[in-house]
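User: My instructor asked us to take a sequence, write out its structure as tokens, and then describe one feature of it. I'm not sure where to start. Here is the sequence I was given:
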Amino acid sequence: MYTFDSRVRYSEVGVDGNLTMEALIDYFQDCSTFHSEDVGLGVDYLNEVHRVWMLSSWQICVNRYPHLCENIVIGTAPYEFKGFVGYRNFEMKTKEGEVLAYANSIWSLMDTQKMIPAKPNERILNGYALEERYPMEYAPRKIAMPDGGEAVEPFTVKQHHLDTNNHVNNGQHVRMAMDYIPKNFGIKQLRVEYKCQAKLGDVVCPVVAVSEDHGGYTVSLNKEDGKPYSIIEMIGGAI
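Assistant: Let's start with the prediction itself. The structure tokens for your sequence are:
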């Protein structure tokens, strides 16, 4: 597993002094970026061959959110390529080996000129050492929106929501959705299904539903025509 060491910063914690879910996602995304850069398959190379990895889904499970100044180790490992789809696990641990959080993610490789799926070339396939799938309970990729959701006030995508691909960053989808849950709601499991890109100036029309079966919230960030950019499911629990 590819890893890097870090320490929880003041800018990454919430009012309780613990790492936020948004910062946890940033750590996982940064870890996969560092991994790709270090094996020569990073942003510059993908730009050269007109390819980009688009995140299709997250499943993130939290045992405990680390505290301010706690030393942590973030790791990632790809475990399968299937056609144009890549699968990657993540883990966050303490220096002593306590597993704080772990995740599964599914990615699609896209041709940026034709904007169609593209199979990885030999350099990409050979550049990543595949490992065994992480031992966790894998949830379905697709997320069902519960009935009875409430539409809330739409908003427009701003410049600060964008990443280097000029669409709303994966983590920003989660930040947007978390605006509609109680501030003291502890997320034990997060699932995100990304449906289509949201770009600068697009209007986002959120729909928020309480999930009675698991005591959580599901937020659909919709286009003006009602089709979702993404669906985010947040399940609470004791952490």
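For the description part of your assignment, you could build on this observation: The CA atoms of residues 2 and 35 lie 6 Å apart. Try explaining in your own words what that tells you about the chain.
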